[in-house]
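so my prof wants the structure for this chain in the tokens format not the other one, which i didnt know existed until like an hour ago. anyway here's the sequence
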Amino acid sequence: MTPSTCFFLLLFLCVATGARVHPVVHPAQPAAGPSSPDVITKACELSPEKPFCISVLKSQTNGGVNDLKQAALASVKAASTEAVATSELIKVARRREENKEVVEDGIEEETLADCCMSYTSLIEKLAGAESAMSGGPGPNVSVDLKDALTTADTCEKSIAGGRKSPMVEEVAKKNDNVKKLCTNALSVYDVYAKGN
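here's what i got, hopefully its the right format
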């Protein structure tokens, strides 16, 4: 490259990096401010475990809850995330059982199989609730959340009837947490639905 080409290239880069982008092309996004404690408190008013509810909303949104819809959506996403993690744990446990040369307990395998089927349905219900929420409050969201909670109860009943191996105990703990998060999501959603 000749010295004049380098000079023009350097000049072009300096101008290009120093130029401001027109605001119509890239509008500035409003900064997510800190959450309003009033919004979180209001969202959790029907929750059977208010401190848990407040903690979930603060952790799911990095403290940035601006309205009840955002709070309801965050609580459904928290339940969905935990349900997916629980489903993965169940699948891993089932693989371990299937890879054993000697089947130690057929009841444990049945318990895990029942929970695996339940969690497939539960995840679909939570995804349906999340999707239905994009249009605002409606009966489908509440039905999906209640169905998800009932499905977690089904897994709990399967666990109660089976042997309590360490893996099944871990699934039981995760399932209890999913139930808690689904109950929380339903209570936050109810506040949102009544507020609109």
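also thought this was worth mentioning. The CA atoms of residues 83 and 179 lie 9 Å apart.
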